[in-house]
Design brief:
This protein is mainly alpha-helical and 473 residues long. The chain contains 19 helices and six strands. The strands form two sheets. A three-stranded antiparallel beta sheet has the order 1-2-3, with helices on one face. β2 and β3 form a beta hairpin. α10 packs across α11 and α10 crosses α15. The N terminus is likely disordered. InterPro entries: DUF659 (IPR007021), RNaseH-like_sf (IPR012337). This is DUF659 domain-containing protein.
């Protein structure tokens, strides 16, 4: 019988048994029979239940004696698979131990180099600058330890060490909890090196000031990072590299672009810019929004929203009529924000009309103010709402292009030229084919595209893209 067959036959009887979501090979042979005791596992081959976790289960399958009995039903393949996994784990632990020791040596050397530099500049040894932390820690009374152990043979050094470590860890954890430090930060090599140099320094280490952290120490770290990049820069010149970009928006809706450099030595962050690629399209659309027929509508919409949001009473009244839905919808660019706000106003046209024609509005102190009167005229104007509809018809095709360029899920190079071409056709159609109306818009788009989005690369991408030249028919 193979191991798979054994797993099926035994495991199928384990009603209510559970497995952990892990890629550890041990879980191919183990289930948790009782969720109240997650450390006790059941072998799916022989049915034996024991504690000790998944590590002991692998020993059980691999016939590694000493901690647990060997599984009588595991095949040679099962044994070899788990044994290789156990040996691999040992190698990883050993490598990790070596890595940590290397960090300690590096940290000690860096600290000693700094001290030597200071001593050389002074021309003499600096007194009491550095020493082992063990020389400054409190000594635990050995008699109390022996008494607590009730006469058993106890490794006093080990107990003292554990108590000292616990005492230090309490202070570290307290600082982490108070400062909301994420726990994964303690796994960083820089943190381990920090502990090492603090221990090497000894007592009396002054805390860096806020000024030191924000200015001189920051500059030193920036300089250190630049020096570390020199090896990469040399390799870039000799063997070449690739520039990678990642555009995104921060919490304040500002467009950011990260520039990274990839080479044989790996990928490194190099520069950050707040000017995204899509600024060309956004700039084009804002020029269209500056045309008189659209600017008038945009200005009216802007004044209306500013008036409503400027006073808490008008804002509360608006929210009561729109079921707490906002009319201002911020976008990544100024043009996108204008479009989204117009779209939101159009969706809430009837609610806003009811608001400004209600008895509550007539009783409101702002209804007789100049801005209140202007807002009332805007909301009740047929021409305004007709203009909003016209703006949305013209802007909508352009917003599709903007969203496509901003999207991360689809490469846009092969679609930019084609989508702008489609957008121009939709604009002409939305304006009834009236050249007098659509020509100024098309001229702006063509002017902004020239030399930027009509290059040989863009045209070739468009011509080779089957999306625009073939259809399902």
């Amino acid at each position: 019988m193979t191991s798979n067959a054994s797993t099926t036959s035994v495991g199928s009887t384990a009603i209510g048994a559970h497995k952990r979501n892990s890629d550890d090979v041990g879980w191919e042979y183990a289930v948790i029979p009782d969720k109240s005791n997650m450390d006790r596992l059941k072998c799916t081959l022989c049915g034996k239940v024991f504690g000790g976790g998944i590590y002991r289960m692998k020993q059980h399958i691999a016939h590694v004696t000493g901690n647990v009995s060997s599984c009588p039903k595991s095949t040679k393949d099962d044994q070899l698979k788990c044994l290789n996994y156990l040996n691999e784990g040992k190698l990883k632990k050993k490598a990790k131990k070596v890595h940590i020791e290397d960090l300690r040596v590096e940290a000690r050397q860096e600290l000693h180099d700094s001290v030597d530099e200071v001593e050389n500049s002074l021309g003499s040894k600096a007194p009491n600058v550095i020493g082992l932390m063990d020389n400054f820690t409190n000594i635990i009374n050995p008699e109390e330890v022996v008494k607590a152990g009730k006469g058993k043979n106890i490794d006093l050094n080990n107990i003292v060490r554990k108590e000292r470590i616990l005492a230090v860890h309490k202070f570290i954890s307290r600082w982490a909890y108070e400062s909301a430090i994420p726990f994964h930060a303690f796994e960083r090599d820089s943190f381990k090196m920090m502990l090492e140099v603090i221990g090497q320094f000894g007592t009396g280490l002054p805390c860096p000031t806020r000024y030191a952290l924000s200015d001189p120490l920051l500059k030193l770290e920036v300089e250190r990072t630049k020096n570390l990049l020199k090896k990469n820069e040399k390799e870039w010149k000799e063997d070449g590299c690739s520039i990678m970009t990642d555009a995104w928006s921060d919490r304040k809706r500002r467009s950011i672009m990260n520039l990274c450099v990839n080479s044989k030595m790996g990928t490194v962050f190099y520069l950050q810019k707040n000017v995204p690629v899509k600024h060309i399209q956004a700039n084009t659309y804002m020029s269209i929004g500056a045309l008189p027929r659209f600017k008038k509508i945009l200005d009216q919409a802007k004044k209306l929203t500013i008036f409503i949001y400027a006073h808490h009473k008008t804002l509360a009244r608006m929210r009561s009529y729109t079921n707490k839905r906002e009319i201002i919808r911020p976008g990544v660019t100024r043009f996108a924000s204008a479009f989204l706000t117009l779209q939101s106003l159009s969706e809430k046209k009837e609610q806003l009309r009811h608001m400004f024609s209600s008895n509550e509005w007539e009783e409101c102190k702002f209804s007789g103010k100049p801005k209140g009167i202007a807002s009332y005229k805007t909301v009740t104007s047929v021409q305004f709402w007709s203009g909003v509809t016209q703006c949305l018809k013209v802007f909508s095709p352009l917003v599709k292009v903007l969203r496509m360029v901003d999207a991360d899920w689809k490469p846009s190079m092969g679609f930019v030229y084609g989508e702008i071409k489609v957008a121009k056709e939709e604009i002409i159609k939305s304006l009834g084919g009236n050249e007098k109306h659509y020509k100024p818009i098309i001229d702006i788009i063509n002017t902004k595209m020239k030399g930027r989005l009509d290059s040989t690369l863009h045209l070739t991408s468009y011509l080779l893209n089957p999306y625009y030249h073939y259809n399902d028919a």
